Amino acid sequence: MEKYEIIIIGAGASGIMCALNTNRQVLLLEASDRVGKKILVTGNGKCNITNDHVVAACYNTPLVDRYLAQFNSNQTLQYFTQLGIFTYADEQGRRYPLSNSANSVLDLLFKALSLRRNVKIKVNARPQVVAKTPHGFTVTTEGSTYQCDKLVLATGGNSGTQYLQQLQVAYCPFRPSLMGLKTTKNKGLAGVRVSNVRVRWRHFDEVGEVLFKDDGISGIVIFNLSAHLARNNIRAGKLSLDLLAGVAEDQLLAMLKISVQHNPAYTLSEILAGLLHKSLARNLVERLGLQQKLAQDCTESDLRGLVNALKNYTVDFIGYADNQQVHTGGVDLQDLDGNLQHKQVRNLYLAGEVVNVDGVCGGYNLQWAWTSGKIVGNNL
Ligand SMILES: Cc1cc2nc3c(=O)[nH]c(=O)nc-3n(C[C@H](O)[C@H](O)[C@H](O)COP(=O)(O)OP(=O)(O)OC[C@H]3O[C@@H](n4cnc5c(N)ncnc54)[C@H](O)[C@@H]3O)c2cc1C
To answer: How far from chain centre, in Å, is Cα 262?
Structure first.
């Protein structure tokens, strides 16, 4: 039986970071045929590495603060600089490599990994059974069983549940998060983008661009909303969108009145066309049953109805799209110590999405992967 000091299961962002930050003898087991594959698709292929404004409020738990204090976005950028990865920030503080290429990030992480003599990588290796022994753990893949003193689970969201169960580690069920929402048919709206939409749901209140699809809505603000829905396990309901977040209701009413007064022969869709995308204007007027009305026949109540429909555009969401970026759920931070070691199952460490930490869009999830991987690596 081969013996290692450390076995890391999962060579994604957190597993790689962990392996790069320990001097112990490591076996890194990766189920797919290549390490770090998911990094390639992050940030639309550009890899949004982190964000200049990482705070606990961007995550599902304030407990994350304790860990971010150990390795924050500045330290991440310094670390990446040493690996030869230089970055720029966009206006929202999202950090991307200057190469604008997730490929280059993975290439340099992989290069650093391949120079580490203490790290042995096995791809196409998916352990079937992990077990606690009096002196550590055994990890059994098809054909081999390995022994180790310390085990790191870095399998990402929803992939490591079998190991958690085998080790009798409690976890919150994994649920997809950061994705578009499925809605009832958005007649005639596929492809329409509306910027400056205010989306409110319970304590969630954010303004951003919404992209309408044939049977769904998407965009960063919707992804961020989906994180809150997923954390609360809300799978259907009514959403109210303010399609003109920058314009107050009375201002809007005054604008409509001016347009109606000067353009009596316009249809109401034409009146609205100066305010929002024409497909959405048509859709809104149809919803109110006012498509036959001309501006000259419009009553005060019709105009107030339009204002209300613009400021409270309702959408029936009926599920999640299947383009999730992360999972909510996993092993709670309160069951882990400051080094991300499990409090009951000693010498078991967890990093990345397998921990119950999920952030909104903008580089926060990779930051958690780097932070958690670094902390575990440093403390093995
Ligand atoms: C399309 C997309 C875009 C994204 N863009 C961004 C972004 O721009 N910025 C950002 O911050 N976050 C982004 N994310 C989220 C980010 O990729 C994840 O939060 C991050 O990769 C999590 O790191 P991890 O190490 O926990 O898991 P992963 O990166 O998922 O790595 C887990 C690894 O474990 C391996 N594995 C799983 N099960 C086993 C097993 N049984 N045995 C062996 N190996 C196993 C997997 O193959 C994988 O390589 C994006 C995600 C997606 C899907």
So the answer is: 47
pLDDT in tens, 111-153: 999 999 999 999 999 999 999 999 999 999 998 999 999 999 9
Determine the Cα–Cα distance for residues 118 and 82; give it in Å rounded to an integer.
20
Domain boundaries of the chain, sorted by first residue? 2-176+326-378, 179-323
- In short, whether 161's Cβ falls inside 6 Å of ligand 1 is no
Single out the residue of 139, 115, 120, 144 nearest to residue 129, CA to CA.
Answer: 139
Question: How many angstroms does the Cα of residue 2 sit away from the middle of ligand 1?
Answer: 28
Neighbours of 243 (CB within 10 A): 22
Question: Tokens standing for 41?
Answer: 């698709």
Instruction: Give per-residue pLDDT as tens, 274-328.
Output: 999 999 999 999 999 998 999 999 999 999 999 999 999 999 999 999 999 999 9
Instruction: Give 94's strand partners.
Output: 51
Write down the pLDDT at residue 185: 87
| 50 CA: nearest ligand 1 atom | 11
pLDDT per position as a tens digit, 70-102: 999 999 999 999 999 999 999 999 999 999 999
Rounded-to-integer distance, Cα 132 and Cα 147, Å: 10
Check pocket membership of 180 for ligand 1, CB cut-off 6 A: no
Contact 150, 285 (CB under 8 A): no
CATH architecture for the domain at 2-176+326-378: 3-Layer(bba) Sandwich (3.50)
Are 195 and 206 spatial neighbours (Cβ–Cβ below 8 Å)? Answer: no
Going by their DSSP bridges, the two strands 26-29 and 119-122 should be labelled as: parallel
Side-chain-side CA neighbours of residue 233 (13 Å): 4
